[in-house]
Amino acid sequence: MSTCETCAVRNRAICSSLDGGEIQALSSMGRRRTVAAGEPLIWEDDDSLLVANVIDGVLKLTTSTEDGREQIVGVAYPSDFIGRPFGQTSRATVVALTDARVCVFARNDFDRFAREHPELEHKLLERTLAELDRTRSWMMLLGRKTAPEKIATFLLDMSDRYGDVSACTTFRAPAKLFTLPFSRQQVADLLGLTIETVSRQFTKLKQDGVIGLPSRREVEILNRPALSALAG
Amino acid sequence: MSTCETCAVRNRAICSSLDGGEIQALSSMGRRRTVAAGEPLIWEDDDSLLVANVIDGVLKLTTSTEDGREQIVGVAYPSDFIGRPFGQTSRATVVALTDARVCVFARNDFDRFAREHPELEHKLLERTLAELDRTRSWMMLLGRKTAPEKIATFLLDMSDRYGDVSACTTFRAPAKLFTLPFSRQQVADLLGLTIETVSRQFTKLKQDGVIGLPSRREVEILNRPALSALAG
DNA sequence: CGATAACTTGACGGCGGTCAAGCGGCGTGG
DNA sequence: CCACGCCGCTTGACCGCCGTCAAGTTATCG
Questions:
Q1: Which residues form the HTH crp-type domain (chains A, B) (predicted)?
Q2: Does residue A64 contact residue A105 with C-beta atoms inside 8 Å?
């Protein structure tokens, strides 16, 4: 039995392509589970056994070198799809950044179901293409931007992500004040920097009056044009 | 009228999902064209009007900052699919690195056709997922690897890409000697380095006897284990 | 054979990484 | 309620990698 009807992401996740009967069939294959902050869900280079929809919370996708250097290669928010369908192994580790709820499926089951439901595959394709676009623009940041540019770009990105949709349904105003789901180290892993450089750049922006830092995880945008100019 | 039956990538491109009648319909919508080395095919932030299959040649996908810094975010080889279906704008510029032949479609036509042919969309999905995997592992390189590690990783990557399939159909032996489709500047744009750093690292590897450089575009792998060790 | 572009090499400096110490907020336990 | 300790973060000093600028060299093509 399922709670799909009342699911918070019912109309945004790839499931939105399915009608009542179909979603019943899909939900009978999956199950909900919670992932505590810091807890892994999928391991890099492991057999790809799981795929999932994110219902609530934020998770990071990372890859690591043998000597322990880490790079965050993606971030999954509610309604995002995670895992590697149609492939033997997962190429990224998935770890929850906040307490999270996900809707997990055995990859084999999901693959079979998806191939029988083209509308679902289409939604997944659109999502994957959009994710590839985002990933590629992040490559630009990693390969060619300086530390101040990286930080500014990141903050604007977060501000948009946590924007307010209340005013208007089509336009989402960027948030002035928001809470980061990342620690300083995780920001560093996202931007290809060290924690010290991240800290110094935050302090610099605060001193220059561009941002405020009410608490460790909170950021307030005080001078958006300045931040945009810095973003490169 | 079409030459799909004799197309060099007929069995590897996404078209391989289509039967005779279907491919006839698709090919009637598209046309072949050549793209000279250095010539662009798609522009960043332009309306996404074109998609294409690569028949022959190599193309680069790039994004640029306003002040002219460039990052190569992808490389398309024969049988690869390029362009942005199901989206209003293309987020990368596509430029031919070598003289190339492509099979182009108006995006609108392609989108409509794809939605009517789930097997084609499935192939496209598998390709996109694989490309996302590759792109993410490249993020690791851009964000966390040093210049020597980047160069070593790049050369091993190229060696695999140009491997010989003659010996065995399932296993592709990495190439000892191969010709780069990239100039030094393009290698720099791929790795997030400057042309000078690329040049110096090549020279260093040559001096150390790890590689040979018979000509500007050719590379010979002399000590693969050493290169693997350097790749990080 | 000359012109031009692509590449190499050298000198130098700055950005950001490394190492180390200090700070502060929060939770725990006395 | 306060003392303490821990962990995440900040700050400082230093330095090395790699970017910048400039000159020299080698391929390529008309």
A1: 145-225
A2: no
The whole-number pLDDT of residue A168 equals: 65
User: Chain-wide mean pLDDT for chain A?
Assistant: 94
Facing B73 at nearest CB: one of A67, A91, A139? A139
Domain harbouring A211, CATH code:
1.10.10.10
Domain check: are A124 and A86 in the same one? yes
At residue B1, the pLDDT reads: 47
User: What's the Å distance between residue B189 CA and nucleotide D24 C1'?
Assistant: 24
Compute CA distances B65 → A97, B62, B94, whole Å.
31, 10, 15
Which residues lie across from B184 on neighbouring strands?
Answer: none
Same domain, B130 and B153: no
Q: Tell me: the pLDDT tens digits for B30-57?
A: 999 999 999 999 999 888 799 999 999 9
| pLDDT value of residue B147 | 98
Nearest CA-CA distance, residue A119 and chain B, Å: 9
CB of B199 within 7 Å of some strand C atom: yes
> Can you give the C-alpha Rg of chain A in angstroms?
19
User: Is A146 within 7 A of strand C by CB distance?
Assistant: yes
| DSSP one-letter string for A152-212 | HHHHHHHHHHT-B-SS-SS--BPPSEEE-SS-HHHHHHHHT--HHHHHHHHHHHHHTTSEE
Q: What is the domain range of residue B123?
A: 4-139
